[in-house]
Design brief:
By secondary structure, the chain is an all-alpha fold. 47% of the residues lie in helices and 2% in strands. Strands 1-2 form a two-stranded antiparallel ribbon. The chain is globular, with a radius of gyration of 17 Å. The N terminus and C terminus are likely disordered.
Length: 247
Amino acid sequence: AIKMGARNGKAAGENFRKGYPDHKENDPTVSANLEFYKGTGLCQPNRLTVDQLHEEWWGKYSTLEREHGYIQWLFPIREDGMNAHAQMLMLHERDAIRADPACRARVIQSYRLFLDFMGLELVDEQTGEVQRGPHYEERFSNLREHSHNNLRITRILKCLAEMGFAHLQAPLVRLLAHEALETSLLAPLADSLANWFVHVVMDDAARNEIIQYCVDHGCPPDDDAPDGNGARGGPPGHGDPMPGGPA
């Protein structure tokens, strides 16, 4: 099975964008992610429905930082994560979630929940525009201090594309690039931005535009970085998953 945190971000991103050509697992008997997003299944080990998680954990920043298992349930992808209680996304589940308006609305609410955790807010679902929230200073500080959230962001970007919301990817990555490379408020995210986030953006023109933005601002992607962190020695949070930073 594919693992989050494959060692080379560019290669991992390309593999993702191509739809994992060597990975076609689609067990029709497995549907925990679909049941969760339909509102009938419970995430494990927290034993909450998706609607309960959205309502009860909104704004509970210490819980969202401390707990790790919920990420695989809110943002399932076709890769194994660090939660043994979660299930890798199956193609039939992905297709069913994409086709169900209630499930799609829940995916957007999951995205809003984590944006709020990051100190951001979704302005427009159609364009994907995001902006700082009123509490961004506190939340940006948390992102600077806890680099395992970089893995979470990569997972979320992938999940958005899987669920039919690829148009939401580039606006988020653009904003993170601005805050990492121009304002420097998210400077510790720069290596993950250049070597991971950009490579999972599905839109070729947008991806190339953001890569050029990184180059122009002194943070070119490290195409040959052996561990996904880049030659600049970025913070842990990419490369192989680390204790305390699962995604």
